Amino acid sequence: MLLPQPHGLNNILVSLYTGLRNNHIQWLDAKTFDCRVTEEDRLFAKLHTNTDKTKKSAWEPHVNFRVIEILRSQKEWRGLINWPGFKELLYYNNNEKTKWPKIFPLFSAVADGRPHPDSRYERTWRAVLGSFQAILPDIDEASNFRLCSLEPPYVEFLDVDAKAKKEKYGLECNETGVCLLDVKSKITPHSARVSVVSQFITFLPAEMIGTYITGQTPATVHHYVKLDPEFLEIEQVHQSMVLRERAYRNELEAFATAPRVPDRFIRADDVNSHLAKSLRSNLDETLTSYGCISIVLNEGSTNGLDVLRETRAAYAVENKTEICPYANHCPPEVVKMWRGPHRCGLCQYAVRSVDHLPAVAAKANQFDEILFALTEKIVAAMNSDDPRYSDAELDRLEEERLRIGEELAGWKVSEEVLDATRCRIAAGEETRRWVVQAPEIILQDLQRVAVPSNATAYLLQRLQECIVYPTLESPQMRAKFDLLRRSLLARTGRLDEAFSFAAPVSPAEECAGLLRSMVEANTLTYDDLVNLLERDQHLQNFAPTHLLPESGVGNGEK
């Protein structure tokens, strides 16, 4: 009677779970493989591995408990066989000179007790690949993956000479009437080792993988890593989100404890800023060291850097978002080219350094908000059954929208170029000796924070920007700050102030003051504050007198 052997499948399953070399799985010892497993082990256990390619003694990787179950089922099968050879101890790989003690093979497969040959698990591996290829259409992956194919002898998977070889083999088949086909693939059983390492490297350090799972050195672990490009893209997005949220959280905590400028905002227009001091001490070195740029559309045209060097910055004015070499008086040709004055986002004479980057990013946000609001107005007017604007008025709105879009593009270009320059300087690609003071954005190791998609997080970011750079507040954001201010006042019982017709001079400052009081009074984290602002019930969980200090104390008012 022939008894089916599970050796090939069990071997493959263990290799896919553990990443162990197939040869060491074949030579596991039936008496010792589970000697370190305890009754308490349910999810993971130690597998006693009695051989290894590089180690000098047996070792014990941590494995999924399913591995122990598979090997115990293999041991049960072994117990069904009464061949004399199954009771013998054998040398590893049948080599009498081996450094390893004799083994009682768990995977004994032939009469003399030797384990199954490599061809056994290789054939099983191809069968598994073929089966998996067959179910790919059911999981909508058929067009993306081709794991294997059925080919005649001497024809490899994706063989460039497949057509000629098949025609030749077909002629031979006509003589015998039988054409043998087999599953061919470039994916070998050794790929299981690659798969295990590539999976674990996504959440474990290489040192831990090598020490506790695969038995490799860290360098060898990295050699086996092959990550899915889709995973890398997802991981990059996730890391960006985490870094962004950490940045917001750190800024909020600093913002809530003292009325000061958050660290990532630099006032390049301050008379005592590094940029201002450096310009006064060494103009030429500063323009180079600070990565100063001017956006020029026509190659060969004079730009702001040329004017600064020519005039030695005699008329230069340092603004929050740029240096104007013409004392903020637009040259006639610029006014003509851009159909109006003070369109600094497009001006070829505006000079910007890496220390201008935070203000430039805030300026881009301001124009983005204005453009979005104007677009909504135009769309609503065009979709209205009762026209509120004449054709001429709609044309003027569309023209204004075009102007804002043009300048937004200019600010965005400047932001991208400046951030690329900052990255290059921070990475050490600019190895110059600092003759002038280094840019503050480099000294503080500041990085650009991506615009958050969450509306509340964006509101908090813009609140900080508008406090540091008040002129970069858009009408839309000013209205939102006032709405948030009134909402906080109303929900803390200060209804007279909340519904007052008096417009605040600075909604951002007052809103920030209320938020600062809330954070200090309740020891809120960044996440707490976002949740509090997003959902009404979070606000209602706090007693009004705890959210904000009471007003009018001492005269009987609340």
Point out poorly predicted stretches: 252-262, 537-558
Structural class: mainly alpha
Helix/strand order: HHEEHHEHEHHHHHHHEEHHHHHHHHHHH
Strand order of the largest sheet: 1-2
| Rg result | 36 Å
Bin the strand percentage. under 5%
Write down the overall mean pLDDT: 83
Number of strands: 6
Distance between the termini: 95 Å
Shape: elongated
Number of helical stretches of at least 4 residues: 23
Share of helix, binned: 40-55%
Largest sheet: 2 strands, antiparallel
Identify the notable features of this structure and list them briefly:
single chain, 558 residues, mainly alpha, two-stranded antiparallel sheet, two-stranded antiparallel ribbon, 23 helices, disordered C terminus
SSE layout:
Layout: H1 7-18, H2 22-26, E1 44-46, E2 62-64, H3 65-78, H4 118-135, E3 149-151, H5 162-176, E4 182-184, H6 191-200, H7 206-214, H8 218-224, H9 229-257, H10 274-281, H11 283-289, H12 304-311, E5 317-318, E6 323-324, H13 332-337, H14 357-383, H15 391-426, H16 440-443, H17 455-468, H18 475-490, H19 495-498, H20 507-522, H21 526-534, H22 536-540, H23 544-547
Antiparallel strand pairs: 1-2, 3-4, 5-6
Helix pairs in contact: 1-3, 1-4, 1-6, 7-8, 10-11, 14-15, 17-20, 18-20
